[in-house]
Write a structure and sequence with these properties.
Number of domains: 2
Number of helices: 13
Bound molecules: shikimate-3-phosphate
Distance between the termini: 6 Å
Structural class: alpha+beta
Shape: globular
Strand order of the largest sheet: 21-22-1-23
Strand content: 25-35%
Length: 437
């Protein structure tokens, strides 16, 4: 699938009131914890994207009865901490790094052996970051050469709690350790070098499992158990981010994004865009399933380049493709540093974005840990998403400040996190054509 987005003058901005699909991180966790809980859990607002569906299918393959999703509703008959059954074959987790890293932790504590595999992109991503702490806990997990998937987990091990100092800021690694910690003897504590998303900690509490959180440390004590809970998944701020930037860079925009999760460990993108001069306001504050939720209103604004504070980087880690687009449309220079984790996402997001921006005539220079972008006009051209959903959607929004059409190749994976993206974007004013090749 390919997107063709129309640039050039005479565009109207993004308008209307829309709801983006459910949060991917929260959707994954709702299936995992609902499956291991005692009792029936009801989920609403579940993201029906390929990544979270791969988590759902994995638990079905391990004998959990899961109904749905149907219009975002899922019902899970929890089997308890020790009720999973060995799957008949390897669990294929597609493009989803979150599924693989969190499941590695959960499955390290089971009585059976299991293999976790993924698509070409996931098969290149680093897993040593999870197998190292799991091995320290007593788990037996083999990888392919270079610490890459597939992961082969040998079950029936006795896990022990550890104190783990994470070498990188990663919510997936933190969550993996905490989930294995629920099966371990004693206390497992993870210390993070910078704050990362805390959906695991919040949702474990909602499922009745105590998590001690202090500053940069989170601890669970095993053996733990979970009780069924009902979870209302808010809109994904990472999906909302495309519209935040699109509306900011297009003239004459005024858009409302309803029911977006603004967990403080995820709001880096709002803070970064505000520092760049964006006009973003929040209303209708609510607390939903332990997560803060608002409606966001974004109007056109003249953005300016900034040096993005490094402390905000982990809080906006998935939003850099679209932040780079904002920088390309801003006046002056934007410098991103401390973002080397972008090189090991669904694609190398530093290189792929720099190449794409350069193909569109933007002065963008990739650095080891970020990028230097001189803002100005974006030109016409063809870019490749390298099968990375967020790269595809970022370049689609770039057309709102480009002087010609942009062709974006390899857009199928948009369905991993944002099914219906093109239709929703078109409904509020983006000129986007989907070409099935
Ligand atoms: C996620 C954590 C982040 C993020 C990913 C989802 C999660 O990954 O990039 O899309 O749900 O825990 P890292 O933990 O590798 O930074």
């Amino acid at each position: 699938m390919k997107f063709i987005v129309q640039g050039g003058l005479n565009k109207t901005g993004l308008k209307g009131s829309i709801r983006v699909p459910g949060d991917k991180s929260i959707s994954h966790r709702s299936i995992m914890f609902g499956s291991l809980a005692e009792g029936t859990s009801h989920i609403s607002g579940f993201l029906e994207g390929e990544d979270s569906l791969n988590t759902l299918r994995a638990f079905q393959a391990m004998g959990v009865s899961i109904e749905g999703p149907s219009a975002g509703k899922v019902t899970i008959e929890g089997v308890g901490m020790h009720g999973l059954k060995p799957p008949a074959q390897a669990l294929d987790l597609g493009n989803s790094g979150t599924s693989m890293r969190l499941l590695a932790g959960l499955l390290a504590g089971q009585k059976f052996d299991v293999e976790l595999s993924g698509d070409a992109s996931l098969s290149k991503r680093p897993m040593k970051r999870v197998t190292d702490p799991l091995t320290e806990m007593g788990a037996v997990v083999a990888t392919a050469e270079g610490g890459k998937p597939p992961l082969k987990i040998t079950g029936n091990q006795t896990l022990k709690g550890i104190n783990y100092q994470m070498p990188m800021a990663s919510a997936q690694v933190k969550s993996c350790c905490l989930l294995a910690g629920m099966y371990a003897q004693g206390k497992t504590c993870v210390t993070e070098p910078a704050i990362t998303r805390d959906h695991t900690e919040r949702m474990l509490e909602a499922f009745g499992c105590d998590v001690d959180v202090s500053d940069s440390m989170a601890c669970v004590t095993g053996p733990a158990k979970l009780m069924a809970a009902d979870i209302d998944v808010p809109g994904d701020i990472s999906s909302a981010a495309f519209f935040m930037v699109g509306a900011s860079i297009a003239d004459d925009s005024d858009i409302v994004l309803e029911h977006v999760g603004i967990n403080p460990t995820r709001t880096g993108v709002i803070n970064i865009l505000k520092l760049m001069g964006a006009d973003i306001s929040c209303s209708n504050h609510q607390e939903v399933g332990g997560e803060p939720v608002v409606d966001l209103r974004i109007r056109s604004a003249k953005l300016k380049g900034i040096h993005i504070p490094e402390g905000l980087v982990p809080l906006a880690i998935d939003e850099f493709p679209i932040i780079f687009v904002a920088a390309a449309c801003a006046e002056g220079q934007t410098i991103v540093t401390g973002a080397e984790e972008l090189r090991v996402k669904e694609s190398d997001r530093i290189q792929v974005m720099a190449d794409g921006l350069k193909a569109l005539g933007v002065d963008a220079r990739a650095t080891e840990d970020g990028m230097i972008i001189k803002g100005g006009e974006i030109g016409a051209g063809t870019v490749h998403s390298h099968d990375d959903h967020r790269i595809a959607m970022a370049f689609a929004m770039a057309s709102l400040c480009s002087n010609g059409d942009i062709h974006i190749e390899d857009c199928d994976n948009v369905n991993t996190s944002f099914p219906g993206f093109a239709e929703l974007a078109a409904s509020c004013g983006l000129s986007i054509q989907v070409v099935n090749e």
